[in-house]
Fold these 4 entries.
Entry 1:
Amino acid sequence: MNFSSNFNKKEHPEPIVAKSLPLNSNFSNYIDLFKNSLNNLSNSQTPLFNNNNNKDNNNNNKDPKGPQKPPIFAIVLFVLSLLLPLYTNGSPPNAITLQDFISNYLTNDLNRENIAKIVVQDKSVAIVFFKNTSNTISFSIGSIKQFESYIERYSPLTPIYYQLDQTSLLSLFGKFLPSIITLSILAWFMRGQSSGAGSPLNRLSKMGKNKATVYYPENYTPPPGAPPNLHNNLRVTKFKDVAGCQESKQEIMEFVDFLKNPEHYNKLGAKIPKGCILHGPPGTGKTLLARACSSEAGTPFITISGSEFVEMFVGVGAARIRDLFKLARTLAPCIVFIDEIDAIGKKRGNNKISNGSDERENTLNQLLIEMDGFNTAEPGKEVVLMASTNRLEVLDDALLRPGRFDRKIEIDLPDLEGRKQIYMIHLKKLKLELNTDLALLAGRLASTTAGFSGADIANVCNEAALIAARFESSFVEFDHFEEAISRTIAGLQKKSRVLPPDLRKVVAYHEAGHAVCGWFLKNCDPLLKVTIVPRGSAALGYAQYIPSDNNLMTEEQYFDTMVMALGGRCSEEIHFETVTSGAQNDFQKVTAIATKMCKELGMSKKLGYINYSNDSSGGISVTKPFSETSAIVLDEEIKKIVTTAHERCAKLLRDNSAAVEKVAQRLLERETITRKDMLELLGKRPYAEKHNEFEKYLDIKE
């Protein structure tokens, strides 16, 4: 096939060489749109890049109306990026495949005769023009030689024109338009928002700033550059509002006096302690003491949480430590309080994977350096560091040594008198009857809530007020407090859970077994009440006792406690043909006590005076500090102690089966019986109470 001869035929137009084909009938409209955009750009007063750092620019950045609007150029580029793909580099109109063209046009005589010419663009796309119509079709071709062979085979007279590779200015602009838009928007962000408070660059630069909150005393003027005065936002707490930890409060008050009257101590040659750490169980008032200290110190009080130093970026924690103490030295004399310091103060070297160089350790190292770097030699510029944690054993030894934390103040659970003082504070906030004796009510509540922390007591008082409001009572009464205490101990009362008569009887005898064992055993705690009212998710009944505040226990006390815990299962074995799963929690308590006696307390003659416990300081241990032979002996001794306790419990309940029957029947009748009912049914306990401080509160009339 001779393409050159066809190329010069007169019946066909001259070949299309280095000429572009019309892209779309609306192309002229697009050109007009582009020209108008450029005209708007030339008339716009908002430049893309503004390097002027004059006062006008600074005033614009401080415009209270908000951040600057994007420049018109960025808007134009964005609109063009949406419209340009419609006119450039898009799919050709009426696109089909090469196989469709061969089967539907070349092999079809009628359609083949209507083909006027074929134009090949860029050696990749063929556009077919038809006679007597403006319609066209297009398709992609993989090989020019193969395409020519198809034409020569099926339609040798069809002329083929080749359009040279050309790229219009519009096409080039479309290719680079996305990059231009990206760079323009990035430049606008860097120019227009680099000085804004919420800009990404500004946030990144402030990553190392501490997030501490500063409270100033009244009539205090902060130095230039210091944070604003937040005294009005401080929840005022005085030392008189803190009770139940008199000794700890006294030591904290000394720190305040150190800062208020340093001359008194300097005359005696005393130096102010550099720091103190408050530790104890949760809810005992560590943060409350710090809050009271902030209110009465008379100096700036800086508070921050330990977790505020933990970030995903390397070096942020150490930078925030430096910034915190820089602020503290500016405000000196002052107090810095770090709550939950165990977030950054854990022992170093436990993490073998990070090889002792992780971010938390870097933060701790910076804290140690800053604490040693206190400038306490200058009079009147003292900085005292306070911290709190309930996991003192996991803190690094270098952090706890004298010279950093000179004092370790333990805040333990309050005793009977401490609980009474805490109740006195919270009861004053409640609406009680006018003739209520606050001291007597507080003492009675304190005697029934042994082991409660200050937070638990506050929760009990609040729950009592909520219960009174639920029943639309005019005052908060003692019954409301009792219900609040029961809810705190055993959970919400399940009034909708109705037990079948046979199951209810089993629960009554189970709880009666506990009550009778505790009543006739010498070393058991006094019984307060027994109930078979379902509470919580699993408890179908429970017995409440009054434990002693003395933490020192004898071997006989541990053993009697196990006997009392097994009273429920033994009572089921005696009075029923089968047993239930209600003693699951009792078995857990018994096993824990027996294990502690053998492993930690040396109360097994066969094992001797060896501590077999594995102290991993709160971590996970995979090894045992004893041999397999010792483990076998340990299991045998634990089983022996539990078996002995079960035998003694069974004998005690058989000897007092009548007492069990009385208590069980009263429970089936009333569902809840108190210590007064037990005295009526069984008489006084055969042994004198070892701690009878509660009797003066419980023996009063209802």
Entry 2:
Amino acid sequence: SSTDPLTLAESCRQYSCKDGSTATVKHFTANSLSSKLLKWTLDLLTRNMRSMYKKSSWGWKPKEKKAEMTEDAARFLIAFLDDTPVAFSHFRFDMDYSHEVVYCYEIQLEEHVRTLGLGRHLMTTLEIFAAALNLDKIVLTVFKHNPEGIGFFRKIGYNVDESSPEENEGKSYFILSKPTKLRLKGPDSFFSQKKLIIHTTSGIYCLMNSRMPRSQHKFLYFPRYVTTTH
């Protein structure tokens, strides 16, 4: 489905940065992402991560990375400052070892915006998606030789996932995750019955903007529940 999950988190469409500027966050699917924006995401990823990939067992394979980022399941949150893209997350609604998850494939920021809180805001938005859709957790992969990235994710509550390779396996990455923490007051079959209280990286978020049953939200946003015909 191409439905915009930001309808579950309307307040996340705008973010007041630490320097006083205001960022606008937009959602794109692989199909709705313009060639110009796709080129920018790939360029930013290359600038930020090429050396990291080269040091890993995976190596740097730009054609494979582009193919991954243009798959139908790929979704993007892109933050703009004055209509200029400055940060993005590539994510998917996915199954991970029998868990229904938001899988964060990438979170990349331009160097000049890395102290504005945008990374935390994008991760908070993914956490709200996971909680609103009643998914189990947010999952991501981080290189062991990326201490800055590890430190960021640790700071916002991510820990080594049960699926992460053991140390003796010699892998160059950790799999980190953060369980979805939510508390529903009142019948949980409808958001509109009572406030949905979601505990995220940025504190407590109240979601009250939907009357649709949670089962229907899953149908709209989660591939497992989408029936296709051929």
Entry 3:
Amino acid sequence: MPLGLHRLNKLRFGGSAASTGRAKAAEPIPAQPLRGSGGSNPRAFAEDLRVESRGAPWIPLAVGGSLSFLVLVLVGAAALIRVDRVVPVAGRLQPQRSTQEIAPPEQGVVRRVLVGEGDTVEEGQVLVVLDTRVLQARQSSLLQQAEDLVRNSRAEVDRVAASLQEERSKLVGDRQQLALTEEQLAQLRPLAEEGGYGQLAVLDTEKSRAQLLARISETQARITRLEAESAQRQAELSAAMAGNSAEQVATDQRLREIVLRAPVEGTILDLEAKTGLLAPATEPLLKLVPTDNLQATVYVPDQDLAFVRPGQDAELEFPAYRRDTYGWLEGTVTTIGTDALPPDQEYQYSRFPVNLALARQYLEADDQRYELQAGMAVVANLRLDKASLMELWFSRFTGGARAVRTIR
């Protein structure tokens, strides 16, 4: 008897087989045909066998348990993993010192231009040379004017000095004559009183004495006037010489300034100077961007200013360099502007300037450095705080709920 039929018969007639098995253990169980099997019909046997075969229930349980565990892991990760919340603001890289405009001190013709757009120059390097012929002619005129001034003033001073010397000599002679007259008068008066000499001689002597006194007084007045005139002439000469000397110094300075030099080390920008150009006074011929450490100047809208503070960290991205290839830089907020800037063509909103210090002055990728330049666009992701993924997800719904409640 086949083994499969034997087991099926045990299942179908298990009760009687079990009871008789104890009494007649040695007797074989005769084979019984299956109901409806028609003897050895294979199709009927397969149908009976299929009725008895059932799938195991552990597969759905395992799938459901795995999905539940995965959901729990994701929810736990969303609650535990915290990420930075950032505010992206745009701006540009700028040197710490402002761009300097280089302009001639006065109108002149450009003779030579020694630099080009984008050139890097050292401090004191000659940039533009203007035509100096006008100033040189002015300097020669000043020198000639100084010589003429000295010559004319010296002649006038000498004339006054000669007149003064003459008057002083007259004063000395008159004083000596006065002394003799007074001595003579002192001798005549006693004689006239005794009658030994005439009164007329005494009167003539007294008259001479009075004339001498008047002449001495006039001479002294002229001497005083000449001394004052001499002092005035000397003062005028000194003032004129000082003015001429100052103008010469100024002209020398202008001659030196007519050769435009770089006040600091930097890069040439907006070069307008060309040979033969008539350069107006104080109009910039070029701009010089100092080679200082660059800083990022970004513009924060009004609604985000409350979240910005000095010392705050930020991630700086540069549109000129792809972040996934060249990376990004760390930045730190240094200063926050106190006055709002009005909207303009580039930024069509009211904003506050915020300066950030850069951790490095270059980007680095594949062991190569990529230098940053002034004027490059920058996007600063200002880090506000950390929040879990679940908080960020729920914030969308709370924001939507507030939007429904508000009218505007």
Entry 4:
Amino acid sequence: MKKIQTYRKETFIYFLIAFILCTNSHAQTTAYDTTKVTQNPPEEKATNLAKQLANPISSLISVPMQFNARWKGGIDNKGFSTATNFQPVIPFSISKDWNLIMRVIVPVISTSKYTPDTKFGLGDIVHSFFLSPKKAAHGIVWGAGPVILWPSATDRSLGQGKLGVGPTAVGLTQQGKLTAGLLANHVWSVVGPGTRENTSATFLQPFFVYGQSTAVILSSESTYNWKRSQWTVPIYLAGRKMLKIGSTHFSADLGGGYYVERPDYAPKWALRTTMTLLLPKKK
């Protein structure tokens, strides 16, 4: 058990060091274009930021903080859980034609009434990289690369317990006020204790965003567990509003979800709020 805990701590420390180095490197080579900010009309800038935010692999640095509450799960439908996700998106310009986009999801999870004891701690970190052309071809924006599932959970019930890797890809189109696309990945477990179940899971996230400064979002974050032949399919509906405090731009999302397909004891309902800090970078 001590070896497993040490492995998880080392994995998490490695991730933090890599993330800090990547962020610092990007900050040293990228400055914010304050001249363009003052020259563009506020309405035009807000519209451009809203369009970039709807694109998960745009050249926009964004720092979302997402809070999820889920209920009606567990035994007798009394289970309740929360997940606060820190999920920064950082693009890197690696050539005149290509970007590399790094997306990270760091979850802090709490659960109640799923087990005799309330659980709270860090969940497994998901780290994705997308190689994406800077210019869309035929109106299609796409990106592809690897995804890594770090076994960083601080409690057995909060994570998979094994290192996972696999491919990830995203494709989307933007026509006027509408953005429609699909983000997908598949993760296989590759390293971890033999006492934990192997992982083979497909994740599908179709999304539709209609609007600009104010928008409506319809999405799902569906997972298929190949080991158990089980779907988990939540449908989310949310509203979005672009905000500005001083010279800093934010977006605020509020919405809810219902699980149309779920494993036994999984939640039925969800509430989600997201605040996203937007940091447009110099081109």
